[in-house]
Design brief:
- The protein is of the alpha+beta class.
- It is built from 15 helices and 8 strands.
- Helix 6 packs parallel to helix 11.
Length: about 425
């Protein structure tokens, strides 16, 4: 469901209830609230006016905080915060309370008998309580904007996406170049992007396999989740016997959007964590401790990836026939994405260098034999950069120390 539909449904429901409930109550329920009409009107008017004022104040503060923190962390986090469904549920409840209060207000002393609808007044009170609870949850949710909570949420999301995207590693990793070198069958259909720039947010692999099976062919994906497609970008090659509708069916399997999402894209989590780290390392902020905290989550994500088969890039139909060959990032790609920019922007921070050193040393002892060489190669690169840095000899020696806290505990047993 689109987020904007949530407050729309709340508002629509309150309008419908405002037309139906008071009428049913007036017809079938003769008991009224033992309260003067003046007091009832004041109560309902206060609820209605107060809810709209509260809505404006709360959401102004919320969006200012979201914008401020997203700018400090990463501009790509703005939408992630702003699309929090609790925001839209809160907005919907506030608006619904306002509108139903007005509907109930219209039925106070409607027949001139100085009656106050009991059920509708009780519903308003219940909605007011629900609005207060929503406000409490919203204020509590703003606590997630703290850097520690943001990093933890990103890490949790990344771990979930990794386990949904990859199968467990059952054998030593196979060099992806060996698979890429296989001969590709001649393309009988080339699907290209033909509209404005859009991002591949996910691929419906099951549907893609079924389309290829029906056309008795193989799909060779030329783009990956997270890629931005511009006019004329080749999306895929199809080798087989395509029908008149195959092109359209294949296009429907590639889900496009205006920006990257977490779905099927573990790289996006790394991108956000690295963004936070290098933003913290910028001269305007100069907060290497935040970068170290980001590396904590990055290292843990790499450990989860180390247990996955990153080279699996084939999809088969139910008969075991190869139908789709798609693109996946290698272990080296993930290492570069995770550490390159932090290493470059943190090259003047002893704290960051020590934490990177610790992460790589521990990864070396954790990954399988097929990936150790890549980790060692990256460690050599890190040591070379430390030697070429502007550190004096003492700082250079300190930067070579492994310290999981960055600067805190250099001697471990």
């Amino acid at each position: 469901m689109q987020p904007w539909l949530i407050p729309t449904l709340y508002a629509s429901s309150s309008i419908i209830a405002g037309f139906i409930v008071p009428r049913l109550e007036s017809k079938f329920f003769t008991y009224g609230l033992k309260l003067s009409t003046t007091s009832a009107q004041a109560y309902l008017s206060a609820v209605a006016s107060g809810m709209m004022a509260l809505t404006g104040i709360v959401f102004s503060i919320a969006f200012v905080l979201v914008q401020f923190n997203a700018i400090v962390y990463s501009p790509r986090l703005v939408i992630w915060f702003a699309r929090d469904r609790l925001l839209f549920h809160s907005l919907g409840m506030f608006v619904a309370t306002f509108m139903y209060s007005l509907a109930t207000l219209a039925w106070v002393d409607r027949t001139g008998a100085e009656s106050v609808p009991l059920i509708s007044a009780a519903i308003v009170a219940a909605m007011l309580v629900a609005s207060v609870l929503m406000l409490s949850r919203l204020v509590e949710r703003l606590d997630t904007l703290q850097i520690t909570r943001v990093l933890q949420i990103l890490g949790d999301t990344g771990r979930e996406v990794i386990h949904l995207s990859y199968l467990p590693l059952k054998s030593p990793a196979i060099d992806a170049r060996g698979r890429d070198g296989e001969q590709e069958a001649p393309a009988s259909l080339i699907v290209k992007h033909g509209s404005k720039p859009q991002t591949v947010t996910s691929i419906d692999m099951k549907r893609l396999v079924e389309v290829a099976r029906q056309a008795n062919g193989i799909v060779y994906m030329k783009c990956a989740v997270g890629d931005v497609l511009v006019l004329g970008t080749v999306i895929l090659h199809f080798s087989g016997k395509p029908s008149a509708t195959t092109d359209e069916q294949l296009r429907k399997c590639i889900i496009l959007g205006d920006q990257r999402t977490f779905a099927q894209d573990p790289k996006f989590t790394f991108r956000l964590l690295v963004d936070i780290a290098i933003k913290a390392l910028s001269p305007s902020i100069n907060d290497p401790t935040t970068a170290v905290q980001a590396i904590d989550q990055i290292e843990d994500l790499l450990r989860h990836l180390a247990a996955c088969d990153l080279e699996e890039n084939r999809a088969f139909d139910q008969d075991g026939v190869l139908r789709v060959i798609y693109q996946t990032p290698t272990w080296e790609d993930y290492l570069a994405l995770a550490f390159d920019e932090i290493r470059q922007f943190g090259s003047t921070s002893i704290q960051v260098m020590r934490r990177l050193n610790s992460a790589l040393v521990e990864l070396e002892g954790y990954v399988d034999s097929g990936r150790v060489a890549s980790v060692r190669s990256y460690m050599d690169h890190l040591y070379s950069e430390i030697e070429q840095s502007g550190f004096d000899p003492l700082d250079r020696a300190a930067a070579h120390i492994e310290d999981r806290q960055g600067l805190g505990q250099s001697h471990r047993h």
